[in-house]
Amino acid sequence: MEFRVSSQPVDDPFVLPATLSTSYRRLEHDRLPPDHQHRLVALVEYPDGMLTLRELAEVQEGEATAGEALIAMTDEQGKTVQYRTVAKQFEDTVNWFVAYGSTEVWSIINLTQDTHPFHVHLVQFQALSRDLYNKDGFNPETGGTTAPVFFQGHGTLDENEMGWKDTVRVNPGELVSIAAAFDGFTGRFMYHCHLLEHEDHDMMRPFIVMPAAAMAAMDMPGMSMPMPYRPRQTPTNGEHK
Ligand SMILES: [Cu+2]
User: Fold this and answer.
1) pTM given for the model
2) Domains of the chain by range and CATH?
C-alpha cells in the first residue's frame, strides 16, 4: 500500500460505513458467563519513583495482617474491603492462573499521579467501565491506605474505547474494568504498562493460562483465590453516551 500526501483536493468516492462490523457485540458484565473470575491490580509508585503492579487479594475475616500495608477500598455500594498485596514485582510468585477458554474481569486501580496504558498479551478485551476513585487515603510511603480509597462517580469510556482493545488508558484515580475470553493458546503470558520505562521498572507481571482440568488437579491458586473485586452489577454502556 502506498500513501501519497498532497496539498491538492482528491476525488475519492469512499464513504465510511456507519457500521464497520456487523458481528461486533459490546460485552456487558451481567451477560458474561456467571462463573467468571475477577482480579484486581493496583498501580503504585513508590517514593523512590519505582512503579509497580500490585496484585491484590481480599483479606478474609479473621486473617492475620500484622505489619502488612493493606489497601482498603470502598466500592459504589459503600462496601469496604481490605486487600493485601500478593505480588508487586516481576519476579514475585505467579498468582493469576486462568482457566483456558474462560472469561475474566480484571480491574485496574491507578493510585499513581500518571496515566498508564494497561496492556495484556494473548487476548483482546473490552473495557466495561471506568470509575472514579478518591485516592487521598493512599500513602505511597507505606504502600497502604490510612483511610479507604473510595468510589466517587462514574467516568466515561470514549467512543474509541468501545471496541476490542489490547491496551486501555487508566488515568490517576480511575478504576477501569476489562473483560476478556482467554482462548487460543495456553502458556505463560505478560500484562504490563505499555510505557517502555514503566514496563522495564517494574510494571510487568506474568499470568498463566492452562486447562481447567489440570488446574483443578493441581489445586492452582487461581481457582481458589478469593474473588478480589466485583464491579457494579449494572452495565453502564448507556451512561457513556
Ligand atoms: Cu505506566
Assistant:
1) 0.86
2) 37-60+68-231 (2.60.40.420)
Tell me: the pLDDT tens digits for 130-187? 999 999 999 999 999 999 999 999 999 999 999 999 999 999 999 999 999 999 999 9
Residue 198 CA to ligand 1 centre (angstroms): 5
CA of 110 to the centre of ligand 1 (A): 10
Question: How much distance in Å is there from the Cα of 150 to the middle of ligand 1?
Answer: 22
Chain-centroid distance of CA 194 in Å reads: 13
Tell me the β-bridge partners of 209: 98, 187
What is the CA(64)–ligand 1 centre distance, in A?
32
